[in-house]
Specification:
The chain has two domains: about 20-105 and about 135-175, 3-Layer(aba) Sandwich (Rossmann fold); about 105-135 and about 185-295, Rossmann fold (3-Layer(aba) Sandwich). It has a four-stranded parallel β-sheet with strand order 2-1-3-4, sandwiched between helices. A four-stranded parallel β-sheet has the order 8-7-9-10, sandwiched between helices. The protein is built from ten helices and ten strands. It is of the alpha/beta class.
């Protein structure tokens, strides 16, 4: 009898602890958000990213287990409607849009070449709205920290001092990371680039590269043969050496453009979450190495 009571009490204690641990979990859509938030929370929360490393946040289909994790979490951080729109549509009270925490003067717009049908080579740039890929610029992440910190303090007010200290340390890391990138990119010869999708424009704009064009704005929106021809002309006109693709999306259209125009194709990974790309700094430095190799 005593043994049965002991086992029952043990089960109740384990269950209670498990529930408490679950309530201390923060959930994010993609890995960079997890990496950024973990820098501030330290071990105060378990931070979980829903998407696997190679998944595309634009087209991801949520699993029932994902929804359960979101419901049970202390907070759910997502990007914005134009990045992980499936997350924006979830009807839960604990969701927080990260793009809304970025100061407005740090946001940039997606700009793509607009081709005029009556002029063969005349192009200008068409504004397609705010670019949601803000985390690719360490300066933008640093600018977001005060607003992100406020949200995390709401979740854990008893540990405000620790959160503040972690935020200061992370901010210092980002300042050093920015200096490193500046020092390693300022001497690169080629400054004009193409991208398969405008996923790294914050980085390129910050460090004085020009994104001459992108193949597609929304993943899966294939360029027409006429647009391909115009893009080939633009590549030559802008003296572009490289088109950058990303690990989470198909590179087939980019290969066609690269082969047709005689430029190189390099793959970046803006999401990370695999060995060698586990911290925010790791992700940025991994891509920096590829960019340097492509544009030297």
């Amino acid at each position: 009898m005593k043994r049965s009571v002991f086992i029952l009490l043990l089960i109740l204690i384990v269950t209670a602890c498990s529930k408490q641990e679950h309530k201390s979990e923060i959930v994010t859509t993609i890995y960079p958000f997890k990496a950024i938030i973990q820098e501030l929370t330290g071990d105060r929360f378990s931070v979980k990213a829903i998407l696997p490393a190679g998944a595309d946040p634009h087209t991801y289909e949520m699993l029932p287990s994902d929804f359960q994790s979101i419901q049970n979490s202390k907070a759910f951080f997502y990007g914005t409607e134009t990045l992980d729109g499936w997350a924006a549509k979830i009807n839960v009270e604990n969701k927080i849009e990260l793009l809304s925490l970025v100061p407005e003067n740090y946001l940039i717009n997606i700009k793509i070449p607009h081709f005029h049908s009556d002029e063969q080579s005349d192009t200008d740039m068409e504004n397609m709205g705010v670019d949601p890929h803000f985390w690719t610029d360490p300066n933008v992440v640093r600018a977001m920290i005060p607003n992100l910190l406020k949200e995390l303090i709401k979740l854990d007010p008893a540990n405000e001092a620790t959160l503040n200290l972690n935020a200061e340390k992370f901010s210092e890391k980002l300042t050093k990371l920015d200096e490193k990138i500046k020092n390693e990119t300022e001497s690169l010869k080629f400054r004009n680039v193409f991208t398969a999708h405008p996923f790294y424009s914050y980085f390129f704009e910050r460090y004085d590269f020009k994104v001459a064009g992108s193949l597609e704005i929304a993943p899966g929106s294939q360029p027409t043969p006429k647009n391909i021809k115009n893009l080939i002309d633009l590549v030559k006109q802008e003296n572009v050496k490289t088109i950058f693709t990303n690990r989470q999306q198909s590179d087939k259209p980019a290969k066609v453009l690269a082969e047709s125009s005689g430029i190189n194709e390099y793959e970046l990974d803006p999401i990370g979450g695999i060995e060698g790309r586990m911290s925010y700094e790791d992700i940025i430095l991994y891509n920096l190495k590829i960019i340097k190799s492509a544009l030297k």
